[in-house]
Amino acid sequence: MGNILDVCDKLILGTSNPISVDFIGRGNVWINNTYEQSVINLARYSIFEALTKTAPGQLSILGYDSDLSGIFSPFAMLSAGESKQLEIISDDKEFKEHLGYLRQQIQAVQNVVQGRNSSLIDFRRSIDRPIEGYKLVVLSLDMGLVDQEIRTKLSLLMRNGPAFGISFLVISTTYMSIQTASGKDIELSVCALAPNITVLDIAGNAVSATNGSKEIFSPITADTIIHKCDVFSENIRNAKLPVVYFSELHDMQKIWTENSIDGVKFSVGKYGINDMEIIIGDEVNQRHNVLITGAVGQGKSNLISVIIHSLCHKYSPSELQMYLLDFKEGVTFKPFSNIGQDEYLPHAKALGLESDVSFGVAVLKSLYSEYERRMKLLKEYNYKSIRDLRHSNPAIEMPRIVVVIDEFQMMFGDDMQTGQIVAELLEKSVRLFRAAGIHFILASQTLGGNMALAQKKDSIFSQVPIRIALKNSVSESQQTLSLNNSAAAFLRPREAVVNLDYGEVSQNRKTVIAFADEAVLRPLRKIWWEKSRTTTPPPYVFESEKRITVQSGKNKIKACRKKATYPIAIVGDKISVDAEHIELPLSNEPGRNIAIIGTPDGDCNQAVGMIQSIAVSLALQNAKGNARFIFCDFESREMSFDKKYPIFTQIMENAGYFVECVQQKDFETTIKQLTSEAGTDELIYVFGLALDKWEFEKDPYGQGSSLKAFVEGAPAKNMHFIGWWIKASSYTSQVSGYGNSDAFNSKIFLRIDERAVQSLTNPFVKWSAQSNRALISDSVEFSEEMWFIPYSPVGPDDLSAIKSMVWN
């Protein structure tokens, strides 16, 4: 097929004196059904001609074989796969539904053409672009038995459909008898249904048309059709549809020329010959949030990239900030980070690569704090919105914030309790934040399957008037747009329905989405970065599975060293947008000891990592040099802790401290000796690893071990114990006995049963062991239990990073 605009607008029958009748985009064809094989042959020939004479990917076929004639059987493979060209209607109910969809499609094309041309064919040729697409509706039925309502709808569609891309091929008898109100039957002619129908009669291989012409045509065998269907499918897969380039929608020479006082706008593609531009934050029309859906492989990631780049091209970082969260593999947003490169997206405040529920909650809570800060400022100036404030006070800098959450339905998690918390936060966010200039773009493949979202769906989406639906199923289209709006089910690749009015059918805008070409966008991002790198820091990047070490907290350690109050142990990073750390003070108050309980990940011993991090953070803070670090490792008998972890030992020595190692057999003696000593100015930190293997002298009265006596009195003597137990029962037997011990304010849990966690904290704690996660419980420091990312064992990078740090 040579031209992307080619269409089978004429059906040619015969060769010597061929019959030519109006077909796709021009008229309808009716084959008089005599129930002979020749009728089936002619129908198949007509479908075959429509497919071969129309540019690949530009024609779809809707078929209804009420007569069970088998017309579509050679074309069966076209009804499967991603390049699905043939859709078969299964029953009368579905047939009626599709008539409604066809009406919507005609109206949509009319809205695109806007009266510029008399037909879609002419409009396409005038702009030299394959706007919209063609549809052939093939009906094998007895039109005389169709009820009056359906016949009336068909009449309307057949009259007006061809000019706007929808033509009909009807296989039916031409005799139609209808009953009048008086009970009398009258015969209805085909031309009474629509004037643009050509009737074909066939006897053998002789075909005659309405105009009286007659010709012999050669039918096509089923084997030929089956073979050619392979070619059709391959042609569709390889078809190079015209691309809407990013540069067609944006002036590439004009960067950051817009202000965000009245909202922010972005361009996503072409609606007909017009740019499809969307404004969010529009207080006149109250359009503040966006919903995007699309099935797998339909271009959702491409669309999101176009939106982000369009926004960032128009607005400077002082006018626009972005929070980008990806709840799947994280590939979409990684190019916006400085991972593996110098440049980054200067507008981005936080990037969630492979985000999890905790990070989603952290972002929403952080944005709520920003909302409260902004609302406080608005009240001080006596304004209701960011728009009013900035119009009256142009010098005030308050950028719009756009939050993009890809696969947002996964943010609700797997358990109902967490899902309800997230749903309430999101509902409150989309409802309240708009006044403060904070807007959401929520994207997902599906809106179903989550109970917490289902319960809050109406209240959330009532605040989301802008709907962008890529190709999806009928049900997903209706969930995204509205119950009577299935337009997204009939899209082609690279198309989307853009609707700015809560899915109202009349507001559908079928848009060809632009191509997010990295060859164009990557250099553009570098230009933005170079313009602002001295004024905008890199975004905080959250990678759910990334292992982190104590060097992450080196700036905090330095700050604690300068403050020189009581020591702070750092064990991991909070799941937050500000890279906060889990800080545990080790003052001389009772209970300031740390217990780590549970099994670490198989590929990374976070228990060892946290113990190393505690020691390193305490050593680096102590500029006086008056501390001792004592280790007893029950995990291994072959090698002492300092020899087992030489890089850790080297870091400690560089900090000016010797790693004291106690043999397993001497642990209890050491503990008893320390217990009997009077307190001094010297700080003593005792570390015990894999204490489950400690064979201690059992108390006959069940009051715990010698360790229990030590931990209860140690903090008052400037001594602290940091221990790791695999089993909660071991911890309990060693330091609690039959009573509840308050000797450990700080408890950190790794892979351990939820009931065991509840027994050591409170019965309402939710905990499910997860890779690269720990749970901290410290009623003195934190209002509730908190998930965090524990530090991993130190490595060469930590050694060089800490050595290169200026600590004084």
Question: Could you explain the architecture of this structure?
Answer:
This protein is an alpha/beta fold. It has an eleven-stranded mixed sheet with strand order 14-13-22-21-20-15-19-18-16-17-23. Helices cover 32% and strands 22% of the residues.
Give the topology:
Elements: E1 10-13, E2 19-22, E3 28-32, H1 37-52, E4 59-65, E5 86-89, H2 92-113, H3 120-127, E6 134-140, H4 148-160, E7 166-172, E8 176-179, E9 185-188, H5 190-193, E10 197-203, E11 206-209, E12 214-216, H6 222-238, H7 246-249, E13 264-271, E14 274-280, E15 290-293, H8 300-314, E16 320-326, E17 348-353, H9 357-381, H10 386-392, E18 400-406, H11 416-432, E19 438-444, H12 451-461, E20 466-470, H13 474-480, E21 495-499, E22 509-513, H14 518-532, E23 540-543, H15 554-563, E24 568-574, E25 581-585, E26 594-597, H16 606-621, E27 627-633, H17 641-644, H18 646-654, E28 659-661, H19 667-676, E29 683-689, H20 706-713, E30 719-725, H21 728-735, E31 746-749, H22 754-760, E32 774-777, E33 786-790, H23 796-803
Parallel strand pairs: 3-7, 3-10, 4-5, 4-6, 6-7, 15-19, 15-20, 16-17, 16-18, 17-23, 18-19, 26-30, 26-31, 27-28, 27-29, 29-30
Antiparallel strand pairs: 1-2, 8-9, 10-11, 11-12, 13-14, 13-22, 20-21, 21-22, 24-25, 24-33, 31-32, 32-33
Helix pairs in contact: 2-4, 9-11, 11-12, 15-16, 18-23, 19-20
